[in-house]
Amino acid sequence: MKRMILLAAVAAISHGAIAQKNKVKIETEYGNIVLMLYDNTPLNTNNMVKMANEHFYDSTLFHRCIPQFMIQGGDPDSKQAKPGQSLGNGGLGTTIPAEINDVNYHKRGALGVAREQTPDKSGSACQFYIVAGKTFTDAELDNMSKRTGRNYTPEQREVYKTVGGTPHLDGNYTVFGEVLEGQEIIDKIANEPRDANDRPNKDIRMVSVRVVEEKKNIISSVKGFFKKKS
């Protein structure tokens, strides 16, 4: 019996190690957005965790917001931006290498790395976007596949048809996470009245961006179990 419990515990540890995710919470006046960052994009995931831990994003704006498309933020120039000031060119003087994986795609709620026309598709070290998106028909997805040469899995196709997203961005931008909570907040922000540069007429700030504290580590929990039972 002890051996069976031990094997189960080891399996739980292994599963926990694989499934471990970083989570980030963005606080806004509209409510909170909770993001799960992917493990298969370690460079971009670790970068956002670092930036959140340094409180870099606090007071930055969602400076580019387009209904049924996405909201973009993280420009350091936005912290003290004047009304009507064009934003989106601020950065840290470096880029993060692209981590474009076919399994990470631009479904509704996807978290992506903003970038300029970098040949290697490397992205901003601070600016990111979250997909609001819209739904697509099979015909639209077929035409997109012909133009881009990109094929969608049955699961991806179903998501784009029923949930929505921005499939035309697939393969060109790094997707490194997704929304767990607060998609309705993204929709509210995306639908705010905006100017010709898609900057909302009112400042929509990230009040704070923090890494969400994980629940008690599963390995510690298992050790505690054996300590109590021995």
From TrEMBL:
Enzyme class: isomerase
InterPro entries registered for this protein in UniProt: Cyclophilin-like_dom_sf, Cyclophilin-type_PPIase, Cyclophilin-type_PPIase_dom, Cyclophilin_A-like
Cross-referenced Pfam families: Pro_isomerase (PF00160)
The PPIase cyclophilin-type domain, residue ranges: 27-211
Region forming the signal peptide: 1-19
Lineage: superkingdom: Bacteria
Family according to the record: Belongs to the cyclophilin-type PPIase family.
Protein name: peptidylprolyl isomerase
UniProt lineage: Bacteria, Pseudomonadati, Bacteroidota, Chitinophagia, Chitinophagales
